[in-house]
Amino acid sequence: xKFSHFLFLSVCGAATLATSIKQRDRCITKAEADDxxxxxxxxxxxxxxxxxxxxxxxxxxxxxxxxxxxxxLPYGSVTGMPSINGKQDLYNQQSAxxxxxxxxxxxxxxxxYQVFSCDTITFRWRFFATSAGNLPTSTDQPGDPIDYAxxxxxxxxxxxxIKLVYSEWNNGELLYDLGTRTCFQKNNASACT
Length: 193
Prior knowledge:
By secondary structure, this protein is an alpha+beta fold. The chain has helices at 2-26, 30-45, 49-55, 65-70, 76-79, 87-97, 171-177; strands at 56-63, 84-85, 104-116, 120-131, 145-156, 162-169. The protein is built from seven helices and six strands, in the order αααβααβαββββα. Strand 5 and strand 6 (162-169) form a beta hairpin.
């Protein structure tokens, strides 16, 4: 009886251990989530091909109605079309956004809150930058502070690389900080005149 009881406990213990190991292989840890978020946000500050390769898949898709709005594009949430489609597109867009002469000089992100599961990370953030002071028709000056909040949902593949992103941020705050006229009215292009 003792032997069969021991055998039963051994089998149960092995099954529990195997399940635990399997979950550990599949799920990310807090340290891994922190590292992925740190690498992801660093790409908006200083695009780096090595970090990009370590962080995202070749076929990453990035959806953001906030970005689509600023670029005058139909919203991806309606059309199903990503704002960024693929790692090369992400690299090109970030390189252009960080090039000398752009409107915003990025500084850093502050992570406000973060949660994660086995294959997703969601985090609230605040972005800090300064104005380059060269946006036509704006009232900002070089060095004026810019900061605004947003939220990102990152979906990971089996290699813990980001394959899908949903990102939204406070466009009103960004446009205000840039000194841009921010009066919008549906179907009235002359609302601000």
